[in-house]
Specification:
- This protein is an all-alpha fold.
- Helix content is 54%, strand content 2%.
- The strands form 2 sheets. Strands 1-2 form a two-stranded antiparallel sheet.
Length: 379
Amino acid sequence: MLSPNTGTSLAPPASVPVPPAGRRAFLALGTLALTSVGLTACSSAGSAVGTTAAASTDSGPEAAAVARAVTTVTALRASASALASGTLPNGATLRIKGSTAKLLTRTAEAHTAQLTDLGSPVSGTTSPTPGPTSSGTPDTSGTETAESPSALAKAEWSAARTLLGDAAGLSPAFAGLLYRLAASCAANADLLRSATGGKAFGELTVSSIEDDDEDASPSASATSDEDATTPGTSATSSSSTLTTGESGALNRLLAGEHAAFYAYPLVVAHIGGDRREVADEIWEVHRQQRDELERLLLAANVDPVQGSAAYSVTPPTSAGKAAALATTIEQRLAGLAVDVIAVAQDDTVTTTAAGVLVDCTRRQAAWTKKPVADPGSSS
């Protein structure tokens, strides 16, 4: 599920270079069948993440980052499982309404699947054993059991921020792993916050994490968890040189955004109720992301792929099918973003794709109201 992607499966136009592909699986297009270049994305087929993590026997930053990720995800799983059962490790009992308990169970299941793929044994709901840091000192962050669903929402959000920060500077495969875990945690935080009636979390980008770390002067503008930088606003560099792999993967992601911008009005027209306004706002977000990707490519003197005049999209006939179409769009775009991260050498490319991955995963979870264990995958 969470094994790092090694290639892409989307066949772009001849003008778009294709990076070498590793083992991959083709995803069915489902309700969105695009006649040109669209939202089909790939997921790795083959070895699980645990195999990659286990193969790294050194004590470098990647091994330490994976160890911290295991510790964090184990703690989140323990909290979700305990809260779903209504009994905390200290013996205290909680009254959790049925819908929230179901969400907590699904959250625990998602984390269980992640730990399995990370090669970590999964046991009961007890607090996890702290993992090592790069210095060899036990990492005790994020190991306390959350005592309420709202507290778990905050813990998931904090974990997402930590994972985003830990991914910086790692190789593409390991960075992609942590970015996907971060996206999953951010989506969990949204779902739990919504279930408990709390204020929605704001934007979450790699650049906002870095800005928080660098804000040392009193005059620096404060950035909170709920008022972070809008995706793409600081990602585009004035100029850069992209590899063939980066150019191809970015153009495929751009092609997906073209398709998303074309298809989302169908969601807006058929979703109904309060979600129509939300869908309309997301449509505008996809326009902005499309434009941001075009600017990034142009700054690197790469011709951006153009959108098709029309796409073959099956119009939804109900609000439920409109939500399913929106889910497919976000899921496919997340997969294309993972593909970009897998070949990224430039920091701007990585952070841009990571932002798309996190945002699309959060929107996918919002449309389905279910956790996303493996962002960018069809499973």
